[in-house]
């Protein structure tokens, strides 16, 4: 069974940095992509960015381009979300997800809270 476990969330001041990790287990992910999403109270979950497991092609939401970077370590089955120049509006629960390319997001982690203070 596929499992995703996020870690690395916390409280940081505006302008600071955090790195989130997502460890994936329970499957082979050659044709998969990994994604990061976030959800703030009262808002819908929104896409942050994604990376293809094979090839490493990335895609980002406009709101985080230039500040967030997604990378992966296939040997460790881990995907990272490096967040820099954080803003209070980045405060949210961050989720990682995975799924076959072109077939949506079939598996989700439990989420990790990121709080950015002004």
What's the layout of helices and strands?
Blueprint: E1 3-7, E2 10-13, E3 18-25, E4 32-39, E5 46-52, E6 58-60, E7 68-73, E8 78-83, E9 92-100, E10 107-108, E11 112-117
Short description:
The protein is mainly beta and 118 residues long. It contains no helices and 11 strands.
Oligomer: single chain
- Please give the alpha-carbon distance between the first and last residues: 40 Å
Indicate the proportion of strand residues: over 45%
DSSP strand count: 11
Question: What radius of gyration results from the CA coordinates?
Answer: 13 Å
Q: Give the structural class.
A: mainly beta
Instruction: Please summarize the sheet with the most strands.
Output: 7 strands, mixed
Average of the residue pLDDT scores: 94
Low-confidence stretches: none
Shape: globular
Secondary-structure element pattern, one letter each: EEEEEEEEEEE
Helix content: under 10%
Give the number of helices: 0
């Amino acid at each position: 069974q596929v499992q995703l476990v996020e870690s690395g969330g916390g409280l940081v001041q505006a302008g600071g940095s955090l790195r989130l990790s997502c460890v994936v287990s329970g499957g082979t992910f050659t044709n998969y992509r990994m994604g990061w999403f976030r959800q703030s109270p009262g808002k819908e979950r929104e896409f942050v960015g994604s990376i293809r497991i094979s090839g490493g092609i990335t895609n980002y939401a406009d709101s985080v381009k230039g500040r967030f970077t997604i990378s992966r370590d296939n040997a460790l089955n881990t995907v990272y979300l490096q967040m820099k120049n954080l803003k209070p509006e980045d405060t949210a629960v961050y989720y990682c997800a995975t799924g076959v390319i072109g077939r949506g997001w079939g598996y989700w982690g439990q989420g990790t809270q990121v709080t950015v203070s002004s």
